[in-house]
């Protein structure tokens, strides 16, 4: 993941205006196992799961990084967290789970479209990094 993050950073955060894999999933030009969708966000299973349950919550409006959000994003960010919690419950994660947002090269962000990883289904270790 760190190597992918470094390659993504070297390619530029917006990849020259090219759509990310996540915007292609939103447009349905790339398949995904969708768990939930509404007018603001999309939830789908991670294709390379790092836990027995691993899904992503993404806004439909592309925001490259969590460090690029502003006051206008307050409602959307809250919505993403509520959707993450409800989907975790629907996925049977009653014993707990972890939310992860990677930001930038040092945060191991490999896709420059804000996304929340939800991981669970086993005991997760600490510290995570």
Q: What's the CATH topology name?
A: HIT family, subunit A
User: Largest beta sheet: what is the strand line-up?
Assistant: 1-2-3-5-4
Strand content: 15-25%
The first-level CATH class name:
Alpha Beta
Q: Give the CA-based shape.
A: globular
What is the number of E strands? 5
Alpha-beta classification? alpha+beta
At CATH level 2, the architecture is: 2-Layer Sandwich
Protein name: HIT domain-containing protein
Family: Belongs to the HINT family.
Organism: Amazona collaria (yellow-billed parrot)
Domain HIT: 21-129
Topology:
Elements: H1 2-11, H2 21-26, E1 34-37, E2 41-45, E3 53-59, H3 74-90, E4 97-100, E5 116-120
Antiparallel strand pairs: 1-2, 2-3, 3-5, 4-5
Describe the protein's architecture and organization.
The chain has 129 residues and is an alpha+beta fold. The chain has a single domain (2-120), classed as 2-Layer Sandwich (HIT family, subunit A). Helix content is 26%, strand content 19%. It has helices spanning 2-11, 21-26, 74-90; strands spanning 34-37, 41-45, 53-59, 97-100, 116-120. The chain has a 5-stranded antiparallel β-sheet with strand order 1-2-3-5-4, with helices on one face. The longest helix has 17 residues, at 74-90. The chain is globular. It starts with a helix and ends in a 9-residue tail after the last strand. This is HIT domain-containing protein.
